[in-house]
Amino acid sequence: MWRSSRFFVVLIAFLFNTVTIAHAAERLGIGHAVSPQDFAAWDIDVRADGAGLPEGRGSVAEGREIFARVCAACHGEKGEGKAVPGAVGGFDRLVGGAGTLDKASPTLTVGSYWPYATTLFDYVRRAMPFSAPQSLSNDQVYAVSAYVLYMNNILPEDGVLDAKNLPQVKMPNQDGFITQDPRPDVKSKD
Ligand code: HEC
């Protein structure tokens, strides 16, 4: 008798918990299926070959205006970067550094160092402006990317970027990375 009543109490408690948890999940809005729209907001990566680039276009001229308004406060009017008092490094320089990669203190920028222009689009769309990431439209990201490339002498002043031509932009340091380990394989003598 004692045994079966204990079983009964446990059963009631179990059922009560299950119902309460299910109810709480509903009430707190957790645990629902991810909708395609929810997923799309996170699915924004762009690969080096341009896979994942969205529709849209933007010109160097449009990018000049956006850069002055949204980016220059931190990265400088000409993308020269800015010192931050008390901080090492400051806000990154985005322009220049060509021909310095084999020097003792190379200047690493988008222009001198980054191998793919598609990465610039991906990074700016995902992370910039630092104070309000993902606040720019795709057209604006194309435009401001075009302007950063123009400041690095990679695009002409009348340049326009879209999903088709961005992957074709050849970055100066594209071939400067070693993708295969050149050292010979050494087998162990077992
Ligand atoms: C509030 C300051 C701020 C603003 C505004 C801002 N940035 Fe940045 N930016 C940063 C900081 C800080 C970093 C470094 C972030 C890190 O290393 O995690 C950075 C890094 C970058 C880099 C990477 C540089 C490198 O060589 O690693 C790019 C490209 C860039 N920003 C572009 C932009 C563009 C384009 C805009 C305007 C749309 C912009 N940023 C607006 C602060 C800012």
Blueprint (SSEs and pairs):
Elements lengths: L1 H27 L7 H7 L14 E3 H16 L41 H11 L10 H14 L8 E3 L28
Antiparallel strand pairs: 1-2
Helix pairs in contact: 3-5, 4-5
Bound molecules: heme C.
Could you give a short description of this structure?
By secondary structure, this protein is mainly alpha-helical. It has helices spanning 2-28, 36-42, 60-75, 117-127, 138-151, and strands at residues 57-59, 160-162. It has a domain at 42-168: Cytochrome c-like domain (Cytochrome Bc1 Complex, Chain D, domain 2).
Characterization of the model:
- The protein is mainly alpha-helical and 190 residues long.
- It has a domain at 42-168: Cytochrome Bc1 Complex, Chain D, domain 2.
- Helices cover 39% and strands 3% of the residues.
- The chain contains five helices and two strands.
- The protein has helices at residues 2-28, 36-42, 60-75, 117-127, 138-151; strands at 57-59, 160-162.
- The protein has a two-stranded antiparallel ribbon.
- Helix 3 crosses helix 5 (138-151).
- The longest helix is centred in the first third of the chain and has 27 residues, at 2-28.
- It is extended.
- It starts with a helix and ends in a 28-residue tail after the last strand.
- The model has no long low-confidence stretch (mean pLDDT 90).
- The structure holds heme C.
- Heme C is lined by residues 70-71, 73-75, 91-92, 94, 109-110, 120, 123-124, 128-131, 144, 148.
Order of helices and strands: HHEHHHE
- Specify the biggest β-sheet: 2 strands, antiparallel
> What is the highest CATH level, the class of one domain?
Mainly Alpha
What is the CA-atom radius of gyration, in angstroms? 26 Å
Spans of at least 5 consecutive residues with low confidence: none
* Portion in beta strands: under 5%
Question: How are the strands ordered across the major sheet?
Answer: 1-2
**CATH 4th-level superfamily of one domain:** Cytochrome c-like domain
